[in-house]
């Protein structure tokens, strides 16, 4: 596969099926179950660590305060951004070394 190419879920399932020697339907069930498990775990605040691959975890961005200065030098308050949770992935050293 070319560098910087995008792998679709269909291609991922086909590759997993071929690599494991199972049908695409079985591979689709396993891939979907895995993705559902990771999403559910991260959503509930649990870190998912896969040795040699990386860690999926929840990151909470703190709320921000905002202000702006007009061209006349007046300070004006603008709406701040609220705190927000997002998912993050930190690759393992072994995975980073492959790249």
Task: Give a brief outline of the structure.
This protein is of the alpha+beta class and 99 residues long.
3D architecture notes:
By secondary structure, the protein is an alpha+beta fold. The chain is built from 3 helices and 5 strands. The chain has a 3-stranded antiparallel β-sheet.
Topology:
Blueprint: H1 9-20, H2 24-43, E1 48-50, E2 54-61, E3 67-69, E4 75-77, E5 84-91, H3 93-98
Antiparallel strand pairs: 1-2, 2-5, 3-4
Helix pairs in contact: 1-2
What is the terminal-to-terminal distance? Answer: 14 Å
What is the helix tally? 3
What is the overall shape? elongated
Q: Can you give the helix content as a percent range?
A: 25-40%
Taking Cα atoms only, what radius of gyration do you get, to the nearest Å?
Answer: 21 Å
**Uncertain runs:** none
DSSP strand tally? 5
Q: What is the residue-averaged pLDDT?
A: 88
The secondary-structure element order is HHEEEEEH
Strand content: 25-35%
Strand order, largest beta sheet:
1-2-5
Structural class determined from secondary elements = alpha+beta
Mind describing the biggest β-sheet? 3 strands, antiparallel
Descriptive labels:
99 residues, alpha+beta, two-stranded antiparallel sheet, elongated, 25% strand
């Amino acid at each position: 596969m070319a560098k910087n190419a995008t792998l679709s879920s269909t291609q991922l399932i086909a590759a997993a099926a071929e690599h494991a020697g199972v049908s695409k339907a079985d591979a689709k069930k396993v891939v979907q179950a895995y993705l559902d498990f990771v999403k559910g775990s991260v959503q509930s605040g649990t870190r998912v660590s896969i040795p040699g691959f990386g860690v999926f975890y929840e990151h909470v961005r703190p709320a921000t305060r905002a202000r702006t200065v007009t061209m006349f030098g007046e300070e004006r308050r603008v709406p701040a951004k609220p705190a927000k949770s997002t998912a993050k992935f930190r690759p393992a050293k072994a995975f980073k070394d492959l790249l």
